[in-house]
Specification:
- The chain has one domain: Ribosomal Protein L30, Chain: A (2-Layer Sandwich), CATH 3.30.1390.20.
- By secondary structure, the protein is of the alpha+beta class.
- It is 29% helix and 27% strand.
- The chain contains 2 helices and 3 strands; from the N terminus they run E-H-E-H-E.
- It has a 3-stranded antiparallel beta sheet, with no helix packed on it.
């Protein structure tokens, strides 16, 4: 069974946010608004997404 992946898109600016939230966005591999990355669905990634969910759009992909 292949691992599930998530498409994560930055939809709001990281500027003016808490330093730990900015670092989390960089840790997810996002640099600019509208950029999308495909990440493996792991508990670590889910925690990072949950922390900054108000800045992201998340979609499941196979």
């Amino acid at each position: 069974m292949p691992n599930k992946t998530l498409r994560v898109t930055l939809v709001r600016s990281r500027y003016g946010r808490l330093p730990s939230h900015r670092a989390t966005i960089v840790g997810l591999g996002l640099r600019r608004i509208g950029q999308t990355v495909v990440l493996e669905d792991t508990p670590c990634v889910q925690g990072m997404i949950r922390k900054v969910s108000y800045l992201l759009r998340v979609e499941e992909s196979v």
